[in-house]
Amino acid sequence: MKMLINSPETVVADALRGLAAAHPDLDVDPEARVVVRKGASEGGRVGLVSGGGSGHEPLHGGFVGPGMLSAACPGEVFTSPVPDQVLRAAKAVDSGQGVLFIVKNYTGDVLNFDMAAELAEEDGIRVQRVLVDDDVAVTDSLYTAGRRGTGATLFVEKIAGAAAEEGAPLEQVAAVAERVNKASRSFGVALSACTTPAKGSPTFDLPDGELELGIGIHGEPGRERRPMMSAREIAEFAVGAVLDDLANVAPADGPVLALVNGMGATPLLELYGFHAEVARVLADRGVPVARTLVGNYVTSLDMAGCSVTLCRADDELLRLWDAPVQTPALRWGR
Amino acid sequence: MKMLINSPETVVADALRGLAAAHPDLDVDPEARVVVRKGASEGGRVGLVSGGGSGHEPLHGGFVGPGMLSAACPGEVFTSPVPDQVLRAAKAVDSGQGVLFIVKNYTGDVLNFDMAAELAEEDGIRVQRVLVDDDVAVTDSLYTAGRRGTGATLFVEKIAGAAAEEGAPLEQVAAVAERVNKASRSFGVALSACTTPAKGSPTFDLPDGELELGIGIHGEPGRERRPMMSAREIAEFAVGAVLDDLANVAPADGPVLALVNGMGATPLLELYGFHAEVARVLADRGVPVARTLVGNYVTSLDMAGCSVTLCRADDELLRLWDAPVQTPALRWGR
């Protein structure tokens, strides 16, 4: 498997050097592996720290900046960041208003962020945590007790980031983050496996002519394998799974935020064609779509495939979604 | 080869339906295959029309909107739009101030845009044309007399779009577009071939353990094949090729705009790592970088690989680059 890298050992540090070079408005420490919004601790705002294994870019480093994350801690590829890294990020962003940890529900991430929270609190930093667990495909997956955290992470980071930017206190930022997670559901599909730099060959075997419904962003097993389906059939399955689950929890009406996300290697031409089918299914089911993002946002290295994330959004969530954001991967308003 | 599509025949129309659903601020006609900025003909501005074969998304449809293109005409995958399509776009955007056609230098595109220009002029629309031919890899390629047009198209569309948005007259918009093209050079590298939906198998054969230096965005042959190289070696080769050529034409000092572009299937993690090496080579050669874009902007379906585009930018070009833009794929300011 050919890769555009120097060596498997330096992949994460090299990417952080590149991030630093491309975005001088970020403080990037490729050695300590922390990406910080410049001046994060000076604004008197609540700090937002997220992170997780690398390989899901632009998540999380690409979402650091005004209106979104204060800092991100990338671990090795598909490996949790260590507590020291998270602690360093918390210290770098705390302005005395406290810090919210946004954690995708994988056992290693949960443990290490919790340990970092204890250390930070010993240092006098108030910490709250929101756990993102939006993936309806399966429970108790390969690295997860309960549901996996995937695409909703972007919604949580954007909307909580807007609340923090407005000066909301820690409890309120944590509450809105929690609310976004509770109102969001995701479902992913793999057309191919991904290849980690360290392994150099596909992380699982997906035969020609088959796809996997309910895949995790590290290639964790989904619900089932089937003979290859059309974009229309995939959209019906994925959106159906998301809406069925969403009906059990959130108010059954109102508009949604929609993320039609590429896993990394699926061309944008295909993603937009897929979105046409997602939009059709939503229209057929009477679900109004308030905002849409189509593109590669929560990826799985070079996996081909896609995921759908929907968030039932009230006026307040929509207002915070629309608020200005200035990060490498998400940027609008000023 | 598995794809996230309904059928090879409907790929382009399906993607346009998806574009329409995701971006209600665009007028998309999936049948006529024209993407138009809403109200394009009402602003009293020069119209900017581009287009070309599909398969390079977000180019061009993703660059339609305030501050950039007025309309885009996507052809079939890797196939020129037809003159009627381009004419329809010209009519949709002309406000009496004339229209600039931005054409990548491929024989079919040149012929069909020229034919559309004749038809438009018969209808009383003033048309000027800029030909983008930035790719230094080879001359007289598979579909091209002279040099191929690739990544500089983004620079031309953004900067000319900003000039048009400011109300510059047609001759001036055309002149700045020409100036950007003359100041820009690109070089692309393939780690894998791409697969068109119609063919369903890779368009060329690139053995394991080899890469192709100087690849075209339709898989046209480059300069040479070599055993796989590191990101550092590839950056040295690609940036070297670009700078060597740029030295012959533009002022030999001053900052550059840099586009480090993914061909479609290369993870962003790798692209940023590659950019670290690009930035290092530029620093070593004493070339200051004024602005950087890293991501998938001018793609080749599911090809793995990358390209580097540099544009020598004076203060005027930088000012126009920084001007607000609101398109699906490029968005900043307001």
UniProtKB/TrEMBL annotation, chains A, B:
The keyword Chloroplast does not apply. GO terms for molecular function: kinase activity. Keywords: Kinase, Transferase. Residues 7-332 form the DhaK domain. It comes from the Bacteria. Pfam families: Dak1. SUPFAM superfamilies: DAK1/DegV-like (SSF82549). Transmembrane segments: none annotated. This is Dihydroxyacetone kinase subunit DhaK. It comes from Streptomyces virginiae (Streptomyces cinnamonensis).
